Records
---
Amino acid sequence: MDDDSAERATAPTAPLTADAAAASAAAPARLRLAVVIASNREGRFGPVIAEWFLAHARAHAEFAVDVVDLGTAELPTALSRDPGPAAREVLERISPVLAAADAFTVVTPEYNHSFPASLKALIDWHFTEWQAKPVSFVSYGGMSGGLRAVEQLRQVFAEMHAVTIRDTVSFHGAHGHFDAAGAHRDPAEPAAAAKVLLDQLAWWAHALRDAKAVRPYAG
């Protein structure tokens, strides 16, 4: 090979490397997913469901995951424009997490055909934090698998100008699905459902984040 041939063979290498570096630098940040554990009930089963889902969410390439656990971050149901010290302390911890999120997953039980008061309080203490963001649901309970709670939550989050994801993950008779260590006894089907949910959530989170970058949402 003569010198000219060698130069022609190697010349494209540097520009391609530079292009790849530029593309990498321009790549959007990973989506921030806030997972809300809704139950604060004594003896709750929510953390078992949540840890199962969190393992799938953290393994998903699109998401960086934060957790808001209402068992340790309880807000009063009496709303106030000037909250007291206890409520202010909770809000200072959780409001920035919700504001920074690109998407949400709510892990909720069903209590008496509805969702926990702790979750309604969290929703009602915030507004702009939910706007123009997607919300997905992982529910659990008895025969209904928490789906009646989810249907009510869709109406609530519509009022918050949020977009709810069609596909859910639900556990009917939830206690029987998990062993004493919190592992699912038959994991293939729920794992597939979690992937569908997370893929849909990522699509909507990207679409809404990109749209807001072009035109801020004015709800």
---
Amino acid sequence: MLFFLLVGMFIVDADLAMQKKTEVKILLELSNHHATFAVDPVLKTEGVIDLLEDEALKRFDDRMYENGGYHREQAMFIPQADSVTTDPIPFSRYYVDFRSWRNDLQLRLQYNGTTLVTERATKGPARPGGGMLQITVVTERGEVLQLAPKIMVGPSHVVVAYIDERPFLPMLPSHSFPVVSVEELKD
């Protein structure tokens, strides 16, 4: 009986982790979508779509707070009591501008247990339909996590967050996983 109870708790814990991953992904995508409307109006009149990064980050922060109850401190989102996660979410952002979106891009990020930092951004060859974006996250234990590649269809704002949550029960392993949002700039 105790064995079945433990298995049930493990299943509930795994289900909670998947729900958190889904919720944070939706939250990132909604926030990033809002951020990508921060386009330089002067350049836009010349046919160049370029991001005003300070305004974009402010718009991103506003949506993270409105939709999820998170406020930003440096490169980390701090949850409130009603947020989907209980631990802070470190994040890293990268802007692929109008001159580079057709090139392949490999982003390598390092998570050290508290922060998520872009370690390297390597540009590759150009593709007529848009570059392939490959994101790799290296954890504090040296585990290499490769996210599914994405194709960019225009200048893009890339946000990668790393969720490192305490488990439902202390005897279970923590929930750690990266989440990415790639949004094309909106003109």
---
Amino acid sequence: MTDPLIADVPAADLVRALGAAGQTVATAESLTAGLLAATIAGVPGASVVLRGGLVVYATDLKHSLAGVSCEVLATEGPVAASTAEQMAVGARIRCGADWGVGLTGVAGPDSQDGHSVGTVFLGLAGPGHTEVVRLKLLGDRWTIRIGATHAAIRELLRYVTAGETSVSA
């Protein structure tokens, strides 16, 4: 039986691309609660490229485990572009990976800190590169969480296959 998490998403392509580039990835996940790492791990051979992941659902863990600054959490909150960026950097550093991915947002059913349901911030941190993508996803909790996971895989794949390492942080 095929892992249902990897259906309809280029997770196998990401694992192949990371492997071909000799690179690794780690995650820091809030609203997806490990779904991104689990999806990548669903690909045979993922152990070569997946270093690990941090589930930082609670705000205090975003600081203590993922390294998000207290100042950012106090001023911008747990759902913010700068939080996603620092989560990505934290995953990369703490897990010793070439790429870090941070995901934070609101899956619902209620809005949070002025952010509507479906607001997601995706942080990517890699060799000479950091980026944050703001997503607006529609649907129920599962649809938003899986959509965030798929977007993270597609965005990271785009950078790995393009060899994007020259963009400065």
